[in-house]
Automatic annotation (TrEMBL):
Top-rank lineage group of the source organism: Bacteria
Family statement drawn from the similarity comment of this UniProt entry: Belongs to the class-IV pyridoxal-phosphate-dependent aminotransferase family.
Gene Ontology CC terms: cytosol
Stored SUPFAM superfamilies: D-aminoacid aminotransferase-like PLP-dependent enzymes
Reaction catalysis annotation: 4-amino-4-deoxychorismate = 4-aminobenzoate + pyruvate + H(+)
InterPro entries associated with the record: Aminodeoxychorismate_lyase_IV (IPR017824), Aminotrans_IV (IPR001544), Aminotrans_IV_CS (IPR018300), Aminotransferase-like (IPR036038), BCAT-like_C (IPR043132), BCAT-like_N (IPR043131), Class-IV_PLP-Dep_Aminotrnsfr (IPR050571)
Names of the cofactor(s): pyridoxal 5'-phosphate
Pfam (any one): Aminotran_4
BP term (GO), one: amino acid biosynthetic process
The EC number(s) this enzyme carries: 4.1.3.38
The protein's name in its UniProt record: aminodeoxychorismate lyase
GO molecular function: 4-amino-4-deoxychorismate lyase activity; pyridoxal phosphate binding
Length: 274
């Protein structure tokens, strides 16, 4: 397995990042997860724009996108696989313990791991913790993911694959690694960005391709929704067949099935042509 580090390809096994990297010691970093299918990256330009937005939000220098593109292509070419999770990590760099970021500049790591296509349906739960819709990190894809790790562990304990958060005012927000859509009276809705959710790339594509409305929704919309689905880079559009104790249809409902169909059809055009 080859990864990209220090400006070139390296063997993953021998590759070293300092134990004093600010990303490791204080979670000072941003990342992207990109789907790589048959050697091509999906929606790469959108992911690189979000990487830059997240880096700026954290006060990191803009990533060198030429290098990031070269690194992504090199890692994909060096590790052939049918379906991969391409991960870009960009951190504050090496810095003595207890100090601010060092002078040496950011650390960039690009790695790929094999993954599988997610099932069409899954179970989700709500969690008692809230997303802060007005935090310093709100809307940024940072490596400070501890809150999501805890919530996902709760979901797994309850036999689900995703945990959904409300924000501090009780509005439906997002999952630990996905955005959420609900069908109410036959219409498709998703929480707006001011709910505190990440500007998911699959979310944005689903809004424009399937015509969803951005609506402030209370958490209990999940109890009334005719259909619920999740979106993310690796899930694409995935129907929810159980939310907490509430059982929904076993397969995707009509609105979800149509969103899936449109997504699959349109997404074919959004793979990086290389
Ligand atoms: N929300 C959070 C917190 C995420 O981490 C992710 C993706 O990892 C998403 C939503 C979905 O975003 P995308 O569709 O860009 O993968």
């Amino acid at each position: 397995m080859k990864i990209w580090l220090d400006g070139g390809l390296q063997d993953a096994e021998g590759a070293r990042v300092s134990v004093f990297d600010h990303g490791l010691t204080v979670g000072d970093g941003v990342f992207e997860t990109i789907k790589a299918e048959h050697g091509r990256a999906f929606a790469l330009t959108r992911h690189l724009e979000r990487l830059t937005t997240s880096a700026r939000g954290l006060g990191l220098p803009d990533p060198d996108l030429d290098e990031v593109r070269r690194g992504c292509a090199a890692v994909i070419d060096a590790n052939p696989m049918a379906l991969g999770r391409l991960r870009i990590t960009y951190t504050g760099g090496v810095s003595p313990l207890g100090s601010d970021r060092g002078e040496a500049g950011p650390t960039l790591v690009i790695a790929l791991s094999e993954t599988h296509r997610r099932p069409d349906t899954t179970a989700a739960v709500t969690v008692p913790w809230t997303r802060n819709e007005r935090g310093a990190l709100t809307g940024l894809k940072t490596t400070s993911y501890g809150e999501n790790v805890v919530a996902l562990a709760r979901a797994r304990e309850l036999g689900a694959s995703e945990a959904l958060f409300a924000n501090t005012v009780g509005a439906l927000c997002e999952g630990t690694g996905s955005n959420v859509f609900v069908v109410l009276d036959g219409e498709l809705h998703t929480p707006p960005l001011h709910s505190g959710c990440l500007a998911g790339i699959t979310r944005a594509l689903t809004i424009s391709w399937a015509g969803a409305k951005e609506t402030d929704l209370p958490l209990d919309a999940l109890e009334r929704a005719e259909e619920i689905f999740l979106t993310s880079t690796l899930r694409d559009v995935q129907a929810v067949n159980r939310i907490d104790r509430r059982q929904l249809a076993d397969g995707p409902g009509p609105v979800t099935a149509e969103a899936m169909r449109i997504f699959d059809e349109q997404a074919a055009a959004d793979f990086d042509p290389r």
